[in-house]
Design a protein that fits this description.
This protein is of the alpha/beta class and 170 residues long. It is built from four helices and nine strands. Helix 2 packs across helix 3.
């Protein structure tokens, strides 16, 4: 299946000069979602992961689908102020501004193997922050699963110490 034919492009969103690649059409297409999960399942063995982490918000359905496939749990890495309880925060820069992400301090057990899922790898700031949050609460990041990677932005460099799997590269 050619996922590039399903992804929709929106120029100048969320601001001028950004070409937004939207995976929403993949999410609403059961065959495309199954294809994504099948492809990631070929790349990550069941022993590579104890739990999946989804980055807000487009990473949630990817992580959830993977968790169901592997019969594992799923946790959320969210924007600041969206999670109850004690949280750990990490501020960072993204390609069009600044952001703060957080995770619940008790989201995982010590040394749990975590695969972090998101829709897109751009400059790598969000991915790096997510990995740092997982590690700060005692987890072991065993990899990333991205539907899309924007190779010209070199985000892979910020997370080069981790295994990274991307299904579509632009």
């Amino acid at each position: 299946m050619n996922l590039q034919n399903i992804i929709t492009e929106y120029p100048d969103f969320p601001k001028k000069g950004i070409l937004f690649r939207d995976i929403s059409p993949i999410l609403k297409n059961p065959s495309a979602m199954t294809h994504c999960v099948d492809e990631f399942a070929k790349r990550y063995h069941i022993n590579d992961v104890d739990i999946f982490a989804g980055i807000e918000s487009r990473g949630f359905p990817i992580a959830c689908a993977m968790a169901l496939r592997y019969n594992k749990g799923m946790i959320m890495i969210r924007k600041q102020g969206k999670l109850p309880g004690v949280t750990v925060k990490r501020s960072y820069t993204i390609e069009y501004g600044k952001a703060t992400m957080e995770i619940q301090k008790n989201a995982i057990n010590k040394d749990q193997k975590v695969v972090i899922c998101d829709d897109l790898l751009a400059t790598g700031g969000t991915a790096k922050a997510a990995a740092e949050l997982i590690e700060r609460i005692g987890g072991a990041v065993t990899g990333f699963a991205f539907v899309v990677e924007l190779t010209e932005l070199n985000g892979i460099k910020k997370i080069s110490k981790y295994r990274t799997e991307s299904l579509v590269r632009y």
